[in-house]
Amino acid sequence: MGKCTDVEPFIIILAQRPTMVDKEDLRSQFVDAFQEADYPISSPMDLVPALPGGPSTKFESGDFSMTAMELNTKLNGEFPYDNVDAFVDDVMASLEDQDLI
Predict the structure, then answer these.
(1) The CATH number of the domain where 61 resides is what?
(2) Domain of life of the organism in this record (predicted)?
(3) Is 38 helix (H, G, I), strand (E, B) or coil?
(4) Over the stretch 63-94, which tens digit does the pLDDT of each residue have?
(5) Which of 12, 21, 25, 39 is least surrounded, with the fewest CB atoms within 10 Å of its CB?
């Protein structure tokens, strides 16, 4: 029986392939974390009391992992926000625009 030598490189590449981000799961994490903020919010500081782990609250999906503090540096949104959905929509759009998710 012959030996197949072409499979090993494929297996290595497959194992190194990045894990896709589940955007719906990530969105749900954001909503859960930010929904208790006192809306309307006028700055990122208005969100801190709502976060379960404060600024070190971590959001993870696939290869994406970012704390709330890191997330704040990636946002393109314009405050104020009247509700959690408007804020999370902008968070997701900012991350997509920067190819982070």
Answers:
(1) 1.10.238.80
(2) Archaea
(3) coil
(4) 999 999 999 999 987 899 999 999 999 999 99
(5) 12
Residues contacting residue 39 through CB under 8 Å, at least 6 positions apart: 81, 82, 83, 84
Q: Quick check: is 53 in a domain?
A: yes
Is the CB of residue 76 less than 8 Å from the CB of residue 93? yes
Number of domains in the chain: 1
Can you give the residue range of the structural domain that contains 83?
22-97
pLDDT digits (tens, 9 = 90+) for 30-49: 999 999 999 999 999 999 99
Residues 6+ apart with CB under 8 A from 18: 62, 63
Residue ranges of E strands in 1-101: 58-61, 64-67
Closest by CA to 84, choosing from 43, 48, 41, 53, is 41
- Is the residue at 6 inside a domain? no
Asked if the structure places residue 86 within a domain, the reply is: yes
Structural domain includes residue 70: yes
